[in-house]
Automatic annotation (TrEMBL):
Residues 1-22 form the signal peptide. It is found in: Cell membrane. It comes from the Eukaryota. It is a lipid-anchor; GPI-anchor. GO terms for cellular component: cytoplasm; extracellular space; plasma membrane; side of membrane. The keyword Disulfide bond applies. Transmembrane segments: none annotated. Its EC number is 3.4.11.-. This is Aminopeptidase. The keyword Cell division does not apply. Residues 560-878 form the ERAP1-like C-terminal domain.
């Protein structure tokens, strides 16, 4: 093989797809002119559209047939094809629609000539629906009149439900869009309005938009609405920014609108590249079936992700708004690189860099690191399932594959920590500069660019290659468990790796896997938590052979060692027993904070999850939980809480639950007193910290008496008119009060819910109402969830899972779903993903074979025929199976440990 100089390789890897692939299709669209009339029946929230698409195309291979992508549309008879340079008309012989493959074929009487341009005109019509790319949503305006909004979401593959087109993403063409819509409504799209003109119907007008740059059909977006608009001040060298929202809640958009401009300015400077469009419209949607999405010149958000009320939203909600907006905008620069198969890569990168933007607009939060560690704690749990998929296989399912996107972000964080900021930012800019639309080599191009910059800065060890490193993390499922075993006589440390599985018995064909793992560590007295530059690496000879590494002189035998500082690499770490003890001693001593807070978060999360998988004992895990008594960092508590929440739920039908709660009460009492037994109610002390939020939640969940007292006292002050309960604490306070409360209390919340116009407050009230111990209340709530057309689907899910997680509500929720499944399927318009989430909620609570079989049966009979349910089926079942496996293998270990640590003499502890 001829060896190419390196620069040729790099150039090749960054080239777009050339002419070679094009032979695969006969025709290429050059230009679209789409005209569409939208008619809505406001009372039914349904409607139709009809129109005509004029496609200019070029023939790449002689053919008689034009095949367009077309899904659920009616196509008119008057299809017209004109040869452009002669003006001659080509007559249609016949047309066919292959509905299952979403194709429309038009066969002509004569051949279309190679290289010639033709103009094709296709009339069509269709129905607005939630299952398609163009749908109607409804809401009540401030005068309680019903209003509607029509909006598109063509990505990833629904453009063909709105007009016949060439769906192939590599086909880029400019669009002219003409929308006919009722007078008095606004039409918004990717581009600025060019002109408006009269329609033949008096009560309609035409809006014509400027021509878009060449883009794929999935990027097209438009909406017809009666929103109000807010125009932002001019952004230097940036696009003109307008935000569209419902008039009634427009003031809640102020926060997001105010940071949007700053975020855009930040990214222009970070990426060293101007914003890719002249204007940007933000569309804030009441109930939508979809997540946020950014299109060229138009971003859409669900209201819950954009709105913030200074009085009635939590601090957490504010952070989510900022991070959400930042994420959408980061994506604008990267999404220009149209490549669906790499969606996880670009989305992860956007996710990672968006944190910098948030730190830039809200420096006091120190948000970025914190949110990444929080994300890591979640990913480590989800990615430990036996069914975990390699990220690189995550299909372009847009936001639905959050798991892959989140893991991808963590890997960029890891890489950043390895090569340093200078190299990382330089590489990012260079990548945007080099990469081309439609390239299929983007992934390799990105790794090469990062490699080059890291070589320039000499930041990676010579034998470590970025692509090899990243491929080992992106192309394999799961992540490693790092085993650290110290020999206290020879002072050697052996470090090895294996895949971590939460249910280790499950995976039949245990394939050996190997990851390239940077190793950082610290020991007592050597304060090295600031730097995350690795001192050593676990390497792989070939993809599958992982050999252990032996380190010398890491620490003195009587000193602790911890690995993976600041949780920089998304993996779990376990130690030999003595080292665990040494760490435990350090955590309970006065110098606990000499171990950095993110590392402490990893330690507690690891020890609990490792106990669950049988890697360490529950005796050890419970001892580590006790160290929380000294813990003042919210993130460490949160790391524990993630596991404790599950433990609480899975234990609630068992005999150990009261003893376990006794252990937890003992743990929580000191902390609770410290934070809440101050002078006067917490509300008047001003600052509510995140630590207070989580401690209150855990205390009340374990039925700590003083917590219930506190909650009831605070709740007593609540009336319809005045609410002095701190918003951040309100969820726990309401929920606890409702558990002990009367019908009047429940009705009060119900009224507050009806009145509230802040979506987060409404969600808090809904989940609190589900804490009731009364059947009638839970039934009412389920009816509320599924009866109303205006209930956002996210809130339906919220209610349903809150009821199912209530020990008294599980059977009720299950019965409701089973009894009403036909109607519910209809309500969801066969949106399988959203429906599957409801079953997932039930499956998460399963602890016995019997319950598992009942649910399996239900899915088989009632859901099997939903499109795409087959893949969800296995994933859902696994949740129940893993729970059952835990009960079979680990429950008695936990029982023994709880009995041991509490010294309980309850009957279940004496055997
Ligand atoms: C899209 O078009 C390209 C170039 O013509 C071709 O290589 C590719 O196979 C097409 N993709 C699909 C999904 O048809
Ligand atoms: C687009 O098509 C409509 C009719 O389908 C036509 O009236 C209009 O002139 C066309 N616009 C352009 C720029 O070709
Ligand atoms: C939409 O079309 C259906 C059938 O084609 C018709 O029954 C209905 O009235 C139409 N709706 C509107 C709003 O035009
Ligand atoms: C915003 O609304 C006002 C008043 O309805 C209108 O005059 C203006 O053109 C709108 N702005 C944009 C960018 O459409
Ligand atoms: C939203 O609700 C609050 C409290 O119920 C009320 O004071 C406020 O006027 C409402 N805002 C709008 C725009 O209706
Ligand atoms: C705590 O740290 C201080 C200063 O580093 C050290 O002098 C002391 O011995 C440490 N205490 C323990 C119990 O390790
Ligand atoms: C609340 O926090 C702010 C800033 O974090 C601080 O300046 C203020 O003193 C705190 N107030 C109270 C009552 O603790
Ligand atoms: C009880 O806990 C202690 C200390 O954690 C441990 O040494 C002992 O082995 C445990 N006993 C049992 C029966 O698990």
């Amino acid at each position: 093989m001829i060896k190419l100089p390196w620069y040729l390789i790099v150039l090749h890897l960054c080239l777009p797809i050339g002419g070679t692939g094009a032979a695969a299709s006969n025709l290429r669209p050059l230009h679209y002119n789409l005209s569409l009339l939208t008619e809505v029946e406001p009372l039914k929230l349904s409607g139709n559209f009809s129109g005509e698409v004029v496609i200019r195309l070029r023939v790449w291979r002689e053919t008689r047939t034009i095949i367009l992508s077309c899904n659920g549309l009616q196509v008119g008879e008057n299809v017209l094809l004109v040869r452009r340079n002669t003006g001659g008309r080509v007559t249609v012989r016949k047309m066919w629609q292959a509905r299952s493959v979403h194709q429309l074929g038009i066969v002509f009487n004569s051949m279309l000539w190679l290289g010639e341009e033709y103009t094709l005109v296709v009339p069509f019509s269709g129905q607005l629906s939630r299952a398609s790319g163009y749908f109607v949503g409804g809401y009540m305006d401030s005068r309680h009149h019903q209003q509607w909004i029509a909006v598109t979401q063509l990505a990833p593959n629904l453009a063909n439900t709105v007009f016949p087109c060439f769906e192939n993403r590599t086909f880029l063409a400019p669009f002219i869009l003409n929308l006919a819509h009722p007078r008095g409504t606004n039409a918004v799209s990717n581009m600025r309005v060019l002109k408006t003109s009269d329609h033949e119907k008096d009560d309609y007008i035409w809006t014509t938009f400027q021509q878009t740059p060449a883009m794929s059909v999935q990027k097209l977006a438009f909406s017809i609405n009666r929103f109000t608009n807010r125009t932002s001040a001019e952004i230097p060298k940036g696009p003109a920014l307008t935000t569209w929202l419902r008039p009634k809640i427009a003031d809640q958009g102020d926060y997001a609108i105010s940071i949007t401009s700053q975020i855009i300015v930040f990214f222009i400077s970070l990426f060293g590249k101007p914003y890719p469009a002249m204007k940007i419209d933000q569309l804030v949607l009441p109930d939508t079936a979809y997540q946020s999405h950014e299109h060229l010149g138009l971003v859409s958000y669900p209201e819950a992700a954009f709105l913030y009320s200074a009085q009635r939203s939590t601090t957490r909600a504010k952070q989510q708004v900022a991070s959400h907006v930042a994420h959408e905008f980061a994506h604008h620069w990267l999404s220009d690189l149209e490549n669906a198969a790499l969606y996880w890569l670009h989305n992860g990168l956007s996710d990672y860099v968006s944190g910098f933007a948030v730190d830039n607009v809200e420096p006091a939060w120190r948000f970025h690191e914190l949110s990444m560690v929080r994300q890591a704690l979640g990913v480590l749990v989800k990615d430990s399932k036996g069914s975990a998929q390699p990220m690189s296989l995550a299909y372009a399912s847009m936001s639905s594959d959050t798991q892959a996107n989140q893991k991808s972000a963590l890997l960029f964080r890891m890489l950043h920590s390895l090569i340093g900021t200078q190299a990382f930012v330089n590489a990012l800019r260079l990548y945007l500069h080099r990469s081309h639309k439609g390239s299929s080599f983007l992934q390799a191009c990105l790794w090469h660019t990062l490699q080059e910059e890291s070589d320039n800065q000499m930041s990676l060890r010579q034998d470590i290659k970025v692509s090899q490193l990243m491929d080992s993390w992106t192309m394999q499922p799961g992540y490693p468990l790092i085993r650290v075993v110290r020999n206290y006589d020879t002072n050697e440390v052996t470090v090895s790796q294996e895949r971590f599985l939460r249910n280790p018995g499950k995976l039949m064909q245990k394939r050996q896997q190997c990851w390239w793992v940077p190793l950082t560590f610290a020991t007592a007295g050597i304060d090295s938590f600031v730097s995350t530059l690795p001192s050593e690496w676990l390497t792989c000879q070939g993809r599958q052979s992982a050999s252990p590494l032996i380190l010398n002189e890491v620490a003195q035998p009587d000193k602790w060692v911890v690995f993976n500082l600041r949780l920089a690499t998304p993996c779990r770490v376990t130690y030999d027993e003595r080292n665990w003890q040494l760490i435990g001693n350090a955590l309970s001593g006065p110098n606990a904070s000499s171990i950095d807070r993110f590392t402490r978060a990893q330690l507690i999360s690891d020890v609990l999850n490792l106990a669950g998988a049988g890697v360490v004992t529950y005796d050890l895990a419970l001892n580590f939980l006790r160290h929380l008594r000294n813990e003042d960092e919210f993130i460490v508590w949160q790391a524990a809480d993630k596991y404790l929440e599950w433990l609480h739920r899975t234990l609630r039908q068992t005999t150990i639950i009261s003893t376990f709660k006794g252990f937890m009460k003992d743990l929580m009492q000191t902390k609770f007193d410290e934070l809440f037994k101050r002078d006067g109610p917490a509300a008047e002390n001003g600052n509510i910290t995140e630590l207070m939020v989580i401690v209150l939640q855990l205390s009340c969940r374990t039925d700590l008496e003083s917590c219930a007292e506190f909650a009831l006292k605070e709740f007593a002050s609540l009336t319809l008119e005045t609410n002095r309960i701190p918003v951040d604490l309100s969820e726990t306070i309401y929920c606890t009060a409702i558990q002990f409360g009367t019908e009047a209390d429940w009705t009060l919340l119900r009224r507050l819910y009806t009145r509230s116009n802040v979506s987060e407050e409404r969600r808090i009230l809904l989940s609190a109402m589900a804490c009731s111990r009364e059947n009638w209340a839970l039934e009412k709530l389920l009816n509320l969830a599924f009866a109303g057309r205006y209930m956002p689907k996210n809130d339906v899910l919220l209610i349903f899972s809150a009821v199912a997680q209530n020990p008294l509500g599980y059977n009720l929720a299950k019965k409701y779903l089973v009894d009403n499944i036909k109607a519910i399927i209809k309500l969801y318009g066969s949106n399988t993903n959203e429906l599957a989430q409801l079953v997932t909620v039930l499956m998460k609570e399963v602890t016995t074979e019997e319950e598992l079989n009942a649910l399996r049966m239900f899915m088989r009979t009632d859901l099997q025929n939903l499109p795409g349910f087959e893949t969800a089926f296995r994933r859902i079942l696994e949740l129940g199976e893993d729970n059952i496996a835990w009960h079979t293998r680990q429950y008695h270990n936990l029982l023994a440990a709880v009995c041991n640590i509490t010294g309980s003499i309850e009957p279940q502890c004496i055997y």
